[in-house]
Structure formats: structure tokens, C-alpha cells
UniProtKB/TrEMBL annotation:
Residues that hold pyridoxal 5'-phosphate according to the record: W101, T151, D171, Q194, N236, T237
UniProt source species: Methylotenera versatilis (strain 301)
The protein's Enzyme Commission number: 2.6.1.52
Family: Belongs to the class-V pyridoxal-phosphate-dependent aminotransferase family. SerC subfamily.
InterPro entries: Aminotrans_V_dom (IPR000192), Pser_aminoTfrase (IPR022278), PyrdxlP-dep_Trfase (IPR015424), PyrdxlP-dep_Trfase_major (IPR015421), PyrdxlP-dep_Trfase_small (IPR015422)
Pathway(s) the chain acts in: Cofactor biosynthesis; pyridoxine 5'-phosphate biosynthesis; pyridoxine 5'-phosphate from D-erythrose 4-phosphate: step 3/5; Amino-acid biosynthesis; L-serine biosynthesis; L-serine from 3-phospho-D-glycerate: step 2/3
Enzyme class name: transferase
Name of the protein described by the UniProt record: Phosphoserine aminotransferase
Cofactor: pyridoxal 5'-phosphate
Length: 360
């Protein structure tokens, strides 16, 4: 069988050792006689899984003690509602729009209060992060919301604006754990698991404790971060199996040397593909070099009539899920932590062969 490399943006590739371990533990977790899927979420077995998963995440991200870690359901899109419900407190909030997902965040949050768009690159088809000097930040805002890596358009933040104390809320769904982050610079970090952490069904929220007392009285208990924090993310039954797999991914990442080590690998992987794209006019990436994502790399064929042939050939060569997001078009290679550098080598080799075959 041809070696398969899965470039899906999410649900995405998982480390093979994680899948093999989950397979080995499927019917009997550590002699308990139960699958993790069958355990009571309040039993000692699952409680030990939850505790270790949180501890390993805190280690990997160096999360300060004054931050709570929540394991929630609904994905990052549910947080579009939970964030204003938990943080607005009668104020307005600032939002920067640098891609399709941050635009969606604005649309969803607007139902819950006053939302100010302080920067937007929609007119330029989301190809960069605008210079912070152009942002119209409000000193009295409840928070500033950003998406630090836009999965669709492949735009990534490399630094942060000075908000003069206004908490920054960051959707890190598609690059969390791929690079070192100073958690203390943020009020809230959140992300869906299905890109760089584990299977769909889990959303992780890291929230500073002083932000837990601003929830609207209309906030349902299951959406209330303070209530969830006080109940170890178990005001309802949490996504137990997704948490278990996330824990295995965290263990695997620690074995790789942690976030600092995997970041070096990610830099090398992204460079391999970007360097080739930049070496030819057969393919093009429109994102400003400074803001090119390391995790999601969109690219276009100069002759887009060849798109179907490119995807068909890629499939035949074991290179899967390369079609770009429907809102963007073209191609997209998502190269999360679990994607080995051999996948990038295979992709570049195929792109070179395809170019050679179809160049005029």
C-alpha cells in the first residue's frame, strides 16, 4: 500500500504511536476491565486520566497557576457565544478580523452585545495581519478577540498588540502547541482539539482566574466558565474519550521534547514547502511572508484548470485532503505536529513532478 499522508485541516492526522496505544487500550484500560468509553466520568479511573491530561498540558504550555484549564464541548464555535456571555459584563468588546474564522466570531458574538471591529483585512482577501498602529483599540473594551492562526487563509500572528491592560482572547485552534506561547500575555486561550490535539468533540479553554466573575446572569450553567471551573469541567458529562486521546497526544509531545522541540520541526516542515512554492511561478501563496502560517499552507496553481488533475494525482500518490477550503479555493496543506517531515518531502516531490509534466 502507498504511504498515506493526510493533510486534512481537521479532523486531522494523529501521531501513529497515539493511535496504536489507544488501540491496545481499547478493550481494557490499565487492567480496569473497561474501555475509556465505558467509564464513569466521576470514577477514579477517568478522574486520574483527567488529572494527568491537565497536568501535562500545564507542563507543555507552562500555564501559570492563576489560570484555569477547562475541557468543554461544542468546539471553538460554541466559544463564540460563551466568550461574550462570560466576559462582556455590560461593556463592548473589540474584534480583529484577519480571516474567515475571526469573521465568524464577530457574527456570532454580535448577538450578545456591542462588538467593535477594530481591524479587518477582508478587503485584501485575508492575506496579512494589519500593522497594529492601524487598529482602533478601545481602552474600555471588555476584551480584544483575535484568531492567532487562520486555518482557511493561512495567516498567523507573530506578535501581539499593546492593549494597555485589556485582556486578549485568542482562538488558537489550529496552532496551539505548535510553537511556544507566553500564556500570561493572554486573558483567555481556547481551541478546538481536532487539529493539533486530538479528535473532534473537545474544546480546551485556558482562562485567567480574575476573568471568571463577569458572566451574564443569562449564561447557562454548562456555558459558565466559573461554574465549570468549580466543577472540574463536569457540570455535565465531558467528552471523555476525546480527553483521553488528548492526554495521549500530550504524552507523545512531551516524549518529542516538548513544544520547543516540535516548533523546530514545524519550522523546518513549513520552510520546505514555502521554499519550493517561492522558487517557481507554477504555484503561488498570497500571504505576506511575515504572516505565513506554519500549520496551514494554502497555495494556488497558476493555471487553475489543472486543479482536478493535481488533486487526482495527489490522491494516487497517497497525498490526501489537499483541496482548499471552499471559501478560499485552491489547495491547502495542513501540517500539524503529527505530520512527519517525510510528508512534506513527498508533497514537494509530487508538486515538482506535476509541474514538470504540465509546464508549458
Amino acid at each position: 500500500m502507498t504511504q498515506i499522508f493526510n493533510f486534512s485541516a481537521g479532523p486531522a492526522v494523529l501521531p501513529r504511536p497515539v493511535l496504536e496505544r489507544a488501540q491496545a487500550e481499547m478493550l481494557d484500560w490499565h487492567g480496569s476491565g473497561m474501555s475509556v468509553m465505558e467509564m464513569s466520568h466521576r470514577g477514579k479511573e477517568f478522574m486520574s486520566i483527567l488529572a494527568k491530561t491537565e497536568a501535562d498540558l500545564r507542563t507543555l504550555m507552562n500555564i501559570p497557576s492563576n489560570y484555569k484549564v477547562l475541557f468543554l464541548q461544542g468546539g471553538a464555535i460554541a466559544e463564540n457565544a460563551m466568550i461574550p456571555l462570560n466576559l462582556l459584563g455590560g461593556k463592548a468588546a473589540d474584534y480583529a478580523v484577519t480571516g474567515g474564522w475571526s469573521k465568524r466570531s464577530v457574527e456570532d458574538a454580535s448577538a450578545y452585545g456591542k462588538i467593535n471591529v477594530v481591524a479587518s483585512t477582508e478587503a485584501d482577501k485575508y492575506t496579512y495581519v494589519p500593522d497594529f498602529s492601524t487598529w482602533t483599540l478601545n481602552k474600555d473594551a471588555a476584551y480584544l478577540h483575535i484568531c492567532t492562526n487562520e486555518t482557511m487563509s493561512g495567516v498567523e500572528f507573530v506578535d501581539l498588540p499593546n492593549t494597555n491592560g485589556v485582556p486578549i482572547v485568542a482562538d488558537m485552534s489550529s496552532h496551539i502547541l505548535s510553537r511556544e506561547v507566553d500564556v500570561s500575555q493572554y486573558g483567555v486561550i481556547y481551541g478546538g482539539a481536532q487539529k493539533n490535539i486530538g479528535p473532534a468533540g473537545l474544546c480546551i479553554v485556558i482562562v485567567r482566574e480574575d476573568l471568571l466573575d463577569h458572566a451574564s446572569s443569562l449564561t447557562p450553567a454548562v456555558f459558565n466558565w466559573k461554574t465549570q471551573a468549580e466543577n472540574q469541567s463536569m457540570i455535565n458529562t465531558p467528552p471523555t474519550y476525546s480527553i483521553y486521546i488528548a492526554g495521549l497526544v500530550f504524552e507523545w509531545l512531551i516524549e518529542q521534547g516538548g513544544v520547543a522541540a516540535i516548533e523546530k520541526v514545524n519550522v523546518a516542515k513549513a520552510k520546505l514547502l514555502y521554499d519550493y512554492i517561492d522558487s517557481t511561478d507554477f504555484y503561488v501563496n498570497h500571504v505576506a511572508v511575515k504572516n505565513r502560517s506554519r500549520m496551514n499552507i494554502p497555495f494556488f496553481l497558476k493555471d487553475e484548470s489543472l486543479n482536478d488533475a493535481f488533486l487526482k494525482g495527489a490522491q494516487e500518490n497517497g497525498l490526501l485532503q489537499l483541496k482548499g477550503h471552499r471559501a478560499v479555493g485552491g489547495m491547502r496543506a495542513s501540517i500539524y505536529n503529527a505530520m512527519p517531515i517525510e510528508g512534506l518531502q513527498a508533497l514537494v516531490a509530487y508538486m515538482k513532478a506535476f509541474e514538470s509534466k504540465y509546464s508549458a
